[in-house]
Predict the structure of Glutamine-dependent NAD(+) synthetase.
Amino acid sequence: MSAQSGQSPTTLRVVMAQLDFLVGDIPGNTQKVIDAARRAGKELAADIVVFPELCLTGYPPEDLLLRPSMDLRVAKALETLQAEAFAPAIVVGAPIRQGGLLYNAALVIDQGAIAAQYFKRFPPNYQVFDEKRYFAEGREVLVQNIRGVSVGLTVCEDIWSDGPVEEAAARGAKLILNLNASPYDIGKQARRKALLERKSSENRVTIAYVNLVGGQDELVFDGGSMAFDHSGALCAEAPQFSEGLFPVDLICEHHCQPVSQPALPEPSVEENVYHALVLGVRDYVNKNGFKSVVLGLSGGIDSAVTLAVAVDALGADRVRAVMMPFRYTSGMSIEDAELQARALGVQYDVFSIEPMYDAFMETLAAPFEGTKPDTTEENLQARLRGVLLMSLSNKFGALVLTTGNKSEMAVGYSTLYGDMAGGFDVLKDVPKTLVFKLAWYRNSVAPVIPERVITRPPSAELAPDQKDEDSLPGYDILDQILNLYVERDLSADAIVAQGFNREDVDRVVRLVDINEYKRRQAPIGVRITERGFGKDRRYPITNGWKSGA
């Protein structure tokens, strides 16, 4: 029983199992839970081991939840876990069907049996979440005695809503365990900390927040599991973007007081984003079974940052860079691409597209007769490069990484079946201005990107003396307009009212709107903002909406 007046306080060791699970691999995920629970019991003397939300299925399982065999596979997994009879109690996440309805559940397994189960009360249905497509809403509060301590359970969104924490605390919970699959975006950890500080202090209850880590398609889960005491003080924090078992010791009497651990250093935005990109690439490549990756290295900043991320994610031996020069490719670009490839130690090839371009133009001479060169000829260069990269992909089983950034994707400054051809776009949700900062950050760790790649004016080099800003506003202006229109949903008039030039705004907004069809055909990429092009933003291609007011 919990300590009473005059009795010794109860000590409790909670291990936050911040792990990376594979969606759909229920047997593999179950084994990962078993291995972690055994280790936590034997090596860490855990009393309770807490795993992330829906850890048995991985998150988000999406329409796998509609498979008729899902219930059977989850039931088998739970039987396997119960048969283990772990020394610590474990808390796992799984989909559970009851009364014909499916729930997002947290289950306490203790002494070889399911001791309690809690159904998530607020399945989210915004941004990248669509849980109401699958899950019913739970109705009940759960406060369970675990190892002599009154423990309340909540799942992810429950803690962002009013009710679950408040009601569990009112029923005597001294410790709230919150199971999460909370995806990363810039500033998310700070928002989580502010929420947990408020919830724990207002309700005078300790909260252990356990988050998933790993990449799942466009989502990256960053971990950052934490424990806040009843006064709202952060007492323990696991590192972001890293798997591990992180123990928190609590002394429970009138309250459960976590033993404070040294604070982690606060990462810069650039460091945080860079680690998210690395994790997203590593998991996408490895979980999908690709041997290696290949990308076009142009001598420009986007491909330079993409190459650095790929090497940091996978190792130089699994990365191939290809320079594909044409008559408009500058000598500087050729030199800088080779310098970076050599600095990072990747396989590096140079294949000129000149002969292929000439062959295409010869074939097209008759239909093009009497016309002037335009973007058709420029796009042909990009498409020839795409064919080369996809051929290498097919022959060697290498995933093609595309290199377009969010600013380009937004305004359609990309070529279908050209530089958009590939399987994964590392920088898809990274605005151009942030790309520059990421390059400087990576060079601060070790200088691998030639400095003039970062400092020279960006150019696609598809025409003589071409510069990006010849056809776009400066990136410092463009990215601000895009943030307001794409991520904040402000109208063109509202953006102009903030001081931006009407001509620039109307032009950018129009480009965003008319290029929805391109983005639908683009590869997925790591999401690092609150609103990326993908699950977040779903606009009809065919529509008559006027973007002014």
